[in-house]
Amino acid sequence: MINRRTFSKAVGLGTGAAAVSLAGLQGMPNASAAPQGAGSPTPTVPEVTPGTHTSFARLKHVKAGVLDIGYAEAGPAHGPVVVCLHGWPYDIHSYVDVAPLLAAEGYRVIVPYLRGHGTTRFLSDRTFRNAQQSAVALDIIALMDALKIEKAVLAGFDWGSRTADIIAALWPERVKALVSVSGYLITNVEAQKTPLAPKAEYTWWYQYYFATERGRLAMEDPKDRPGLCRLVWDTVSPTWHFDDATFERAATAFENPDYPAIVIHNYRWRLGLADGERRYDRYEKQLAARPFIEVPTITLDPERDPFTAPGDGASYRDRFTGKYEHRTLAGIGHNLPQEAPTAFAQAVVDVDHF
Fold first, then answer.
1. Is-contact 228 205, C-beta < 8 A?
2. According to the model, what pLDDT value does residue 279 have?
3. How far is Cα 302 from Cα 202, in angstroms, rounded to an integer?
4. Where are the alpha helices (DSSP H) in 85-224?
5. Cβ atoms within 10 A of the Cβ of 165, count?
6. Cα atoms found within 13 Å of the Cα of residue 44, Cβ hemisphere only
7. For the chain, N or C: smaller number of CB within 10 Å?
8. Cross-strand bridge partners of residue 177
9. Rounded CA separation 68/320 (Å)
10. How far apart (Å, rounded) are the C-alpha atoms in residues 224 and 322?
């Protein structure tokens, strides 16, 4: 889940990922959101009841970087692109109501399973099951390259917010605009070693559980895993009255054979308890410096999420230097896109019109 604090050779080739990934994209149609005429009104997204939709019409696959990425797609094939990124312990169904709302506004909506989730698979058994933040971000760069998407609006929560933040910070030429739930989530591993207040540490119980062999075994056990993930759903979204079927649709993504390794590595790496790969060191060095995000951004804070910091976004406001707006959603918990799909979709449309 969120930060405790606030293609190249990156996957085996050698020069900077941004330079190499953009090479070969020259001459492609710009897949960013379509420019709006001066003074054109921002569309109002129609209200939808959460849970109205239960599935995606189109599920696809594409080889991208070290992965065969499974993803949902909605909307016109040549529409302006929005990439929606899920978190943990969630999956693409966090956007099952958001995607049709954006598709109705003319967007091409791409919702990928992150590595280790759902139908996304590693192409080689020999690839290290690495879940450090820059590796996950480069997966999305590779996905955009594979789909010939030069530029897109990126929108995410939890792991998805962090991934979108990283791409916006390091490869802003690929990002038209950004919607980031919980604000600036880029991880500084050294800063993670500093204790928090006891109440904050209590909220992160599962992170420390995963640092133990008991936690690893629970995540690997198909009998224990669903109950553990369900407990997280219940505690971080206290006002979301989802039914068993809603959880079970998402939980199928947790059956991916690489899921336990990816989850455990992610949380251990963030605490400095597991190594990443040297090929990503240059990116992690840049990210440790807390780079600014210059692209147009809307940040969203879910009021009932126990991870939401006090101060109405003040703790991370200085990291966003472009056109910016912050919104707090009253009564909403951690899985904001699924709990408040209309508000999330409206944020995407609004930031695209900045």
1. no
2. 97
3. 19
4. 98-104, 133-146, 159-170, 198-203, 205-209, 213-220
5. 32
6. 2
7. C
8. 153
9. 33
10. 44
Nearest to 80 by CA among 99, 62, 107, 53: 107
Residue 280, both tokens: 């990503």
**Residue 171 in tokens:** 């490869």
One DSSP character per residue, 168-189 reads: HHH-GGGEEEEEEETS-----T
With contact defined as beta carbons under 8 Å apart, do 340 and 145 qualify? no
Task: Report how far residue 303's alpha carbon sits from residue 322's, in angstroms, rounded to the nearest whole number.
Answer: 24
Q: Which residues make beta-bridge pairs with 153?
A: 82, 177
Is the torsion defined by CA of 91, 93, 97, 100 positive or negative? positive
Within 13 A of 238's CA, how many CA atoms are on the CB side?
8
Q: Which two tokens stand for residue 142?
A: 């590779």
Backbone angle region of 173, left / alpha / beta, with phi > 0 → left and psi within -120 to 50 → alpha: alpha
Question: What separation in angstroms does the CA of 41 have from each of 108, 345, 352, 354?
Answer: 20, 16, 12, 11
Read off the amino acid at residue 40.
S
H/E stretch holding 347: helix 341-352
- Tracing tokens 């450090």 back to the chain, one arrives at 132
Are 136 and 261 within 8 A, CB to CB? no
The dihedral sign for the CA sequence 318, 31, 106, 71: negative
For residues 97 and 337, what is the distance between their CA atoms, to the nearest angstrom?
A: 8
Per-residue pLDDT 10s for the chain (354 aa) are 655 444 333 333 333 343 334 333 433 434 444 444 445 789 999 999 999 999 999 899 999 999 999 999 999 999 999 999 999 999 999 999 999 999 999 999 999 999 999 999 999 999 999 999 999 999 999 999 999 999 999 999 999 999 999 999 999 999 999 999 999 999 999 988 899 899 889 999 999 999 999 999 999 999 999 999 999 999 999 999 999 999 999 999 999 999 999 999 999 999 999 999 999 999 999 999 999 999 999 999 999 999 998 899 999 999 999 999 999 999 999 999 999 999 999 999 999 999
d(CA 130, CA 69): 15
Q: How far apart are CA 182 and CA 167, in angstroms?
A: 16
| β-bridge partners, 300 | 181, 327
